[in-house]
Amino acid sequence: MKPAPDDDPRLSEFLRQYRPPLPPESPELEEELMAAIAATPHEMQMPKLRIMPRRSPLWLIPPVVAAGLVGTVISARLFAPPSNPEFANLETFIEDSYAPVSEQSTDDDLFWLEEVAWND
Amino acid sequence: MPYPVGVVPNVSTDESFNLDDDVLVQRCLQGDSQSFRLLYRRHQHRVKAILYQLCDPTALDDLVQEVFLRAWRGLPKFRRSAKFSTWLYRITWNLASDQRQAAARGRSQLQTLSKQAPTYQDAPDVMHLHYQDLVHRGLAQLSAEHRMILVLHDLEDLPQKEVAEILSIPVGTVKSRLFHARAAMREFLHHQGVQL
Questions:
Q1: Which residue among A15, A51, A114, B90 is buried most deeply as judged by most CB within 10 Å?
Q2: What DSSP state is assigned to residue A39?
Q3: By three-state DSSP, how is residue B89 classified?
Q4: Which of B78, B180, B182, B188 to probe by mutation at the A interface, max A CB count within 10 Å?
Q5: How far apart are CA B142 and CA B191, in angstroms?
Q6: Which CATH code fits B122-196?
Q7: Rounded Cα–Cα distance for residues A27 and A23 (Å)
Q8: Distance of residue A27 Cα from the nearest chain B Cα, in angstroms
């Protein structure tokens, strides 16, 4: 329901015209009040505590993202697989180191192993 | 421009009567109780009129005194963002609310002063008395919120914005309550044979 316009002049005028009269003022009231005031101090105003405004947890997002990026870069550097030339060098080194050993493997070696087994 | 306490004229002079409420409040905060006397004289009639419509009229003087005592004690907490009168009427409304709650539990202890019934010094005619009685009864049958709205806006002629500040409600709520309060009052008067 939409309220009517603000003014209702006939009713307002009627209320003002026939408002009940106030009781007569008590002549002592003002002096009584002043005496009461003289005995009443102002309420002490408590100093306002300086409360830090509560920060939204959203402020954590940028630092976390930045830290994540830095961590990703560092781990990529540390644990990245060797590049192709490094692989090739490593493979060559392994082959060179173990080729003589594998080529000298003969039946004598097996015989020696058998002897050892019999002795046990 | 604030006045130092020591150089402000006596409260009985015309100049001091023209001082702004804010100046008087500042002087009160500096301990000048005579400035509070001026504030009392300026606003006591309206405070009394509001309380008269909302509370037990037999305790009226005590309630008026209590309003101004609360104001005096609470002056340091008064923020200058609102008018002193608005803040004072807010205290009046709060006290009236407290008084209604206390009255619901039993008779208040505040009744010590005058118990004078309204007197009609001008010997008004019977119809005038009858209409006054109707207005009084019509207001009494309203809820406290609706009564307060009618008293502040229609009887005391305060603007809706100030009424909203006093009651700490939006202006739209003031308009709505005013509409319903008037409708209830019109209906009451209509049942009593008054045609407006």
A1: A15
A2: T
A3: helix
A4: B182
A5: 15
A6: 1.10.10.10
A7: 12
A8: 10
Residue B121 or residue A116, greater confidence: A116
Q: What is the pLDDT of residue B106?
A: 63
Which of B113, B118, B175 is facing A3, going by the closest CB pair? B175
Min Cα distance B181 → chain A (Å) is: 11
The DSSP code sequence of A49-82 is P-PPPPPPGGGGHHHHHHHHHHHHHHHHHHHPPP
Which DSSP string do the residues of A75-108 spell out, in sequence order?
HHHHHPPPPHHHHHHHHHHHHHHHHHHHHT--HH
Q: How confident is the model at residue A78 (pLDDT cuts 50, 70, 90)?
A: confident
Query: Which residue on chain A is closest to B147 by alpha carbon?
Result: A15
Chain A interface includes B118 (CB < 8 A): yes
- ipTM score for this prediction: 0.73
Chosen CATH of B7-105 out of 3.40.50.300, 1.10.3720.10, 3.40.50.720, 1.10.1740.10: 1.10.1740.10
Query: Does B136 reach chain A within 8 Å, measured CB to CB?
Result: yes
Comparing C-alpha atoms, which of A89, A91, A67, A71 is closest to residue A79?
A: A71
